[in-house]
TrEMBL record, chain A:
The keyword Transmembrane applies. This is ABC-type transport system involved in multi-copper enzyme maturation, permease component. The chain crosses the membrane at residues 29-50, 70-95, 116-140, 160-182, 189-208, 236-258. It comes from the Bacteria. It comes from Klenkia taihuensis. GO terms for cellular component: plasma membrane. Pfam families: ABC2_membrane_2. PANTHER family: INTEGRAL MEMBRANE PROTEIN-RELATED (PTHR37305), MEMBRANE PROTEIN (PTHR37305:SF1). GO terms for molecular function: ABC-type transporter activity. Keywords: Membrane, Transmembrane, Transmembrane helix. The keyword Membrane applies.
TrEMBL record, chain B:
Keywords: ATP-binding, Nucleotide-binding, Transport. Gene3D superfamilies: P-loop containing nucleotide triphosphate hydrolases. Signal peptide: none annotated. SUPFAM superfamilies: P-loop containing nucleoside triphosphate hydrolases. It comes from Klenkia taihuensis. This is ABC-2 type transport system ATP-binding protein. Residues 2-227 form the ABC transporter domain. InterPro entries: AAA+_ATPase (IPR003593), ABC_transporter-like_ATP-bd (IPR003439), P-loop_NTPase (IPR027417). Belongs to the ABC transporter superfamily. GO terms for molecular function: ATP binding; ATP hydrolysis activity.
Length: 265, 304
């Protein structure tokens, strides 16, 4: 008898299954809704206080926000959104492990990689749409509030706005890869935050002659180049940087598949 | 049909499942018995392709689980209580699985109805009682209308109503010609539900026998006789397979002779009987007897 490895668990079926799983949890909509509102409100906060040098009145605010550039001010909410969306990426995976539904999932679709791919595709599409809406809304609100906002047709502006959505999608997928690898919500969230927030800060403590060379390779610094109108010498060019971030995502997901194949579910 | 061939699973130093070879046949309820930690769940997980055997094979309906085109139509499993996301509704849980496995959407309503969950299908699983969660687990197992049903400890924590429901369901599924493989550490439950028993102790296969024979092997059925002239009666009940024991004065436990014969012999001799009761050895007794053997076997096996 020949063994067929062709399963009825089709691509559409897997995608639909993952879509049902994502949409049937309230947390998905809380996170996505919260990110959307947060992006717009923070954009509004920063742009409306731009004249006085930011919310604290002294040019303060989150690191990397250039108060001379209305576009980055309007989109500054991405800093918060990446936290929430990254956690969503983690949760949609680790939730299957903590609840035990992962076993039903793999019983229904025994091959591991299509499940990882389907989850990433559904999650990615969902976050991309919401993040793009958030970025465009934040840009629109910012344009209404502040003078001197560059138009979408100007060089690099559309790239920055839609790049914000691409960056957030990549961070979310990085979260899902960490979820597959670590299977624990706390572990994966801590690792993601460490990678995205902590390492760039620690990297700043490295000696000046080689520290920046390390920092620019970090996922958030490399991917962050896509969100800058102009990049400096110690940063990657926008699309190169984003490609580096996608490299991390690809390596993470590939490692996840390899782990799933070698480890008991 | 489940065929295990030399199935072995090692976790580091510990052999959770040790060279188990057994066939679970369709049409009957096969009880999978053993104390907690005997390796029952690990065996079931290997059947489902979730854990990979260290050695040996586990085939369901002729193939390894993962090589089936439609695995959920071949095998449905309840692997542990509450493998359910608390934030999802019962219906969404089943819909997601049906979609993933490519099963028709109508099956979701069918199994909800079958498990008696139609009224709470839209409620979040987090609010379910243990019994409702278990029913949803069984509904999940039956989603693909599978030829083989694997239920790990399905009666755990159920109220009498739920226990009866599982028992009736297991028997009905077997009567429909399906393979029903049902684990429990509750032996009394197995005695009434299972036709055939597969018994594990410390990872090893201890027995693979019809339930009745399992009980007989461990001492078998007997007849309790109470009579003022018990000693005299004992002398009349002789035969090649007859064993007569007396635990207390005036009471005999007779094995190897049916109650009718005991009564007739007593009447012929004019001996008055005050009690004549057929007794069945309990599954607990049978199980203890078997695991005691297993212990002796292990001691003998140690290298000199």
């Amino acid at each position: 008898m020949t063994t067929t490895l062709e399963h009825t668990a089709t691509t559409t079926g897997l995608l639909r299954g993952e879509w049902v799983k994502a949409r049937s949890l309230r947390s998905t909509w809380y996170v996505l809704g919260g990110s959307l509102v947060g992006m717009v409100l923070l954009g509004l906060l920063f742009t409306s206080t731009a004249d006085t040098g930011g919310p604290s009145g002294s040019g303060g605010g989150p690191p990397g926000v250039d108060f001379a550039q209305p576009l980055t001010l309007a989109l500054a909410g991405y800093n918060l959104a990446q936290l929430a969306m990254g956690v969503l990426g983690v949760l949609l995976v680790t939730g299957e492990y903590t609840s035990g539904t992962i076993r039903s999932t793999f019983a229904a679709a025994p091959r591991r990689w299509p499940v990882v791919a389907a989850k990433a595709a559904v999650l990615g599409a969902l976050v991309l749409v919401v993040a793009a809406a958030g970025a465009l809304a934040a840009y629109a609100v910012g344009s209404a509030v502040v003078d001197g906002m560059p138009g979408l047709a100007e060089d690099g502006v559309l790239r920055v706005v839609l790049g914000t959505a691409l960056y957030l999608t990549a961070i979310t997928l990085l979260g899902s890869a960490l979820g597959w690898l670590l299977r624990s919500t706390a572990g994966a969230v801590a690792t993601l935050f460490g990678l995205v927030f902590l390492l760039p800060v620690l990297g700043g403590l490295l000696p000046g002659d080689w520290g920046p060379d390390v920092v620019r390779w970090l996922p958030s610094s490399a991917g962050g180049s896509l969100l800058r109108l102009t990049t400096t010498a110690d940063q990657f060019a926008p699309w190169t940087g984003f490609a580096v971030l996608l490299g991390y995502v690809a390596v993470g997901l590939a490692a996840a598949v390899w782990r799933l194949r070698t480890r008991d579910a | 049909m489940i065929e295990l061939q030399g199935l072995t699973k090692r976790y580091g130093e510990r052999l959770a499942v040790d060279d188990v070879t057994v066939t679970v046949r369709p049409g009957v309820v096969t009880g999978f018995l053993g104390p907690n930690g005997a390796g029952k769940s690990t065996t079931m997980r290997m059947v489902l392709g979730l854990d990979r055997p260290t050695a040996g094979t586990a085939l369901v309906n002729g193939r390894p689980y993962a090589e089936h085109r439609d695995p959920l139509r071949e095998v449905g499993a309840l692997l542990e209580a509450r493998a359910l996301h608390p934030g999802r509704t019962a219906r969404a849980h089943l819909q997601a699985l049906a979609a993933t496995a490519g099963l028709p959407r109508a099956r979701v309503d069918t199994v909800l109805e079958l498990a008696g969950l139609t009224a709470v299908a839209g409620k979040r699983v987090g609010g379910f009682s243990l019994g409702m969660g278990q029913r949803l687990g069984v509904a999940t197992a039956l989603l693909g209308d599978p030829a083989t049903v694997v239920l790990d400890e399905p009666v755990n924590g159920l109220d009498p109503d739920g226990v009866l429901w599982i028992r009736t369901l297991a028997r009905r599924l077997a009567a429909e010609g399906r393979t029903v493989f049902f684990s429990s550490h509750l032996m009394a439950e197995m005695a009434v539900t299972a036709d055939h028993l597969v018994v594990m102790g410390r990872g090893r296969l201890v027995a693979d026998v019809p339930t009745g024979e399992f009980i007989r092997r461990a001492g078998g059925d007997g007849v309790r006789v109470r009579s003022p002239r018990a000693g005299e009666l004992a002398g009349l009940l002789t035969g090649p397979d007859v064993v007569v024991e007396s635990a207390e004065r005036g009471v005999l436990l007779v094995r190897g002779v049916p109650a009718e014969v005991v009564g007739d012999r007593a009447a012929e001799a004019g001996i008055a009987l005050h009690e004549l009761t057929p007794v069945q050895a309990s599954l607990e007794e049978a199980f203890m007897a078997l695991t005691a053997d297993e212990r002796e076997y292990r001691t003998e096996e140690q290298p000199a």
